Structure to design on (216 residues):
C-alpha cells in the first residue's frame, strides 16, 4: 500500500506540473471574459484567467445555447457586457512593464447572448487613444502592437450609442522589440496571410506556430 501511495502521488504531481507551468508562460496575459473560473485550455496549451481583477464593471453572460456547440474555441462561449457607462476599461499589468513591445488581441463573439439578434457597434481604445470600431456578428478578433509609456495598459470599450459593448476574450503577448521597432506609434493588424499552405482553412497559433517549415 505504501508503494502504491508513492506512485499515486508521483502520478498526480506529473499531471499537475503542465497546468501550473502554463500559468507561468513569460509575457502572457490570457483572459476569458465572462468565464466563471480559471482553466487550462488543453487544445491551445494556454492557461486562461477569468476577468475578475482586470475590470470592475460590467456583467458576465453566456452566449445563446444555439451557438454553444457550434464554436470550437472555449473563449467564445462566455462574454462580459457593459450596459452602464460610456467607457469601461480592462487594466493589464504585464510583468515587464512600460517601454516593451506587446501584441494586444481582443476577441469577440456576439452569439445572440441578449436574444435581440442585433449586433452592437462600439469602439475600442488603448487608454484614451482610438484603436478600432467593433462591428461583427461572427467570431473575430482585433490586434494592435503597442509600446506603453506606463506600467499599466488600459483596453477600453466605448459605448457610441449603437448598442451595448461586450468582449469575449483579451490577450497580451510580449514581443521582441526588434521585430516591430516603434517610437510613439502603434500598429493595428489589417490582414494576415498564410502563404503556401496546403490547407486554406488551417489556423496557426500557439503553441504549434513555432514549427519550422519543411521544403519539398
Amino acid at each position: 500500500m505504501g508503494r502504491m501511495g508513492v506512485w499515486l502521488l508521483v502520478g498526480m504531481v506529473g499531471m499537475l506540473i503542465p497546468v501550473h507551468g502554463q500559468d507561468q508562460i513569460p509575457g502572457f496575459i490570457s483572459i476569458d471574459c465572462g468565464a466563471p473560473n480559471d482553466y487550462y485550455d488543453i487544445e491551445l496549451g494556454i492557461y486562461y484567467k477569468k476577468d475578475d481583477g482586470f475590470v470592475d464593471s460590467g456583467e458576465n453572460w453566456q452566449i445563446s445555447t444555439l451557438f454553444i456547440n457550434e464554436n470550437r474555441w472555449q473563449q467564445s462561449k462566455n462574454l462580459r457586457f457593459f450596459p452602464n457607462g460610456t467607457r469601461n476599461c480592462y487594466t493589464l499589468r504585464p510583468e515587464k512593464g512600460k517601454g516593451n513591445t506587446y501584441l494586444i488581441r481582443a476577441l469577440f463573439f456576439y452569439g445572440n447572448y441578449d436574444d435581440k439578434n442585433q449586433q452592437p457597434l462600439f469602439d475600442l481604445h488603448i487608454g484614451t487613444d482610438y484603436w478600432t470600431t467593433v462591428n461583427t456578428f461572427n467570431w473575430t478578433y482585433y490586434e494592435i502592437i503597442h509600446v506603453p509609456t506606463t506600467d499599466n495598459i488600459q483596453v477600453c470599450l466605448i459605448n457610441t450609442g449603437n448598442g451595448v459593448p461586450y468582449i469575449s476574450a483579451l490577450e497580451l503577448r510580449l514581443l521582441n522589440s526588434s521585430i516591430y521597432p516603434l517610437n510613439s506609434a502603434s500598429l493595428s493588424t489589417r490582414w494576415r496571410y498564410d502563404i503556401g499552405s496546403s490547407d486554406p482553412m488551417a489556423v496557426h497559433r500557439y503553441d504549434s506556430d513555432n514549427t519550422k517549415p519543411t521544403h519539398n
Remarks:
- Helices lie at 2-23, 65-68.
- Residues 2-23 form the longest helix (22 residues).
- The chain has one domain: 26-190.
- Residues 1-22, 209-216 have pLDDT under 50 and may be disordered.
